[in-house]
Amino acid sequence: MRLFKMPADSRQWLAVMNFFMADVRDGLGAFLGVYLLAQSWQADEIGYVMTIGGLATMVAGIPAGALMDRTHAKRLWLSVCAILMVVGCLVLLLWHSFAAIALSQAATGVVRAMIGPAIASISLGLVGSKYLSRQLGQNEAWSHAGSLVSVSVAGVLGYFWGLSAVFMLLAVMAVMALLCIRRIRPQEIDYHAARGLESHAAVSDSGRAVWKALLQSRPLLMLACIMMLFHLANAAMLPLLGQTMVSQGLVNASLFTALTVMIAQLVMIPMALLAGRYAEQFSYERLVTLALLALPVRGVIASTWNSPWAVVPVQLLDGVGAGLLGVALPGLVAKMLQGSGHFNVGLGFVLTIQGLGAALSPAMAGWVAQRYGYAMSFTLLTGVAVLAILLWLQQARQTAAQSAASCA
């Protein structure tokens, strides 16, 4: 495999592209529910179309990863994703029927599933496994900065000119992302390295071979399960905290939501850069451990501190966990599947399984909160987070024991 010593331009444009793609990948994001509500939609209908989008992302995760393993047209697919996200949002602007909105959310859900593996694949192909952590750190830092800026600008535009202005912002961000993608030189991408191969060795892309590679990797399966538990505990924690404060009349809902997003994103930027810089020194495994440890602390604070100020430490810790995992997760999958040629489908597999946890989290937490109170719901989420830590530590001990035995 060749040494990755090329001009930094392509790597820099890839990082900057993440700034603009962050807004594109999210689509209308938090504004979708408000927009549909303004179109006289009912709360249950809004929930249905959002669920459809989430399910589409989950279902498409593994096929999207498999596609990124096979194709050399990675820039083209990434460009198509950016365009389709804008088209999907234009459908929201022009048609308001349930069928049209559901179809657009399903399509954009599939696109979201493809963007993550596409960016990870291009990153690995540009810099190789040796420098992947630093590239992932830059990607994540630019992405979080893009989310912070886009949410802030969208809020201002929506306030003064209505939600239609948010669509214009999305279109502008998509155009800028396309310009950045164009500046990434395809000849600088090692397409074998981009799928986790260390040489030009042949690899089978049959469905049986792919599933065999995934299911025979016990560390990958354990990582997927642990990430599912992490997101089962994590996804509902902030919404539940917001509901607790709003139900007591302690905060303004819109201002509180905006503040939580800003706090977390501001922390994620430096954490992603630090994770990318020190991942090789401290290992991806230790970064995952730190991210996991932050979650139960969030749960304890949320369950015991009944004050709007609780959002500050809760979201600071959320920024720590998300910033670390954004770098550590794809890096760890690349490490586990190194040499297999199935890195992207492995990443899609883990993202799909963790998405299941994120999808179930609000329903589980809401059911417990309705029957036993918010404090009990936070306690349950904290318990799930602790379970994830225990499984991760057990996996780490087994891995260390196997490594020691192989060296003996």
Brief rundown of the structure:
Keywords: Membrane, Transmembrane, Transmembrane helix. With 408 residues, the protein is mainly alpha-helical.
Describe this protein's structure:
The protein is an all-alpha fold. It folds into two domains: 9-194, Growth Hormone, Chain: A (Up-down Bundle), CATH 1.20.1250.20; 213-402, MFS general substrate transporter like domains (Growth Hormone, Chain: A, Up-down Bundle), CATH 1.20.1250.20. It is built from 15 helices and no strands. The protein has helices at residues 9-26, 31-38, 43-70, 74-94, 98-127, 132-161, 164-182, 207-215, 218-234, 237-247, 253-282, 284-304, 311-336, 343-372, 374-407. Helix 5 (98-127) crosses helix 14. The longest helix has 34 residues, at 374-407. InterPro entries: MFS, MFS_dom, MFS_trans_sf. The chain crosses the membrane at residues 12-34, 46-64, 76-98, 165-181, 220-241, 253-275, 287-305, 311-333, 345-368, 374-393. Keywords: Membrane, Transmembrane, Transmembrane helix. This is MFS transporter.
Radius of gyration: 21 Å
Largest sheet, strands/sense/barrel = none
Model regions low in confidence, pLDDT < 50 over at least 5 residues: 1-7
User: Which fold does the CATH topology of the largest domain refer to?
Assistant: Growth Hormone, Chain: A
Overall CATH architecture of the largest domain: Up-down Bundle
The CATH C-level name of the largest domain is Mainly Alpha
One letter per element, helices H and strands E, the order comes to HHHHHHHHHHHHHHH
Measured as a percent range, the helix fraction is: over 70%
Please provide the count of β strands. Answer: 0
**What is the CA-CA span between the terminal residues?**
30 Å
Domains counted in the coordinates: how many? Answer: 2
Question: What form results from the Cα inertia axes?
Answer: globular
CATH superfamily membership of the largest domain, which one? MFS general substrate transporter like domains
**Share in β-strands:** under 5%
How does the helix and strand content classify structurally? mainly alpha
Could you tell me the mean pLDDT?
83
Q: Specify the number of helices.
A: 15
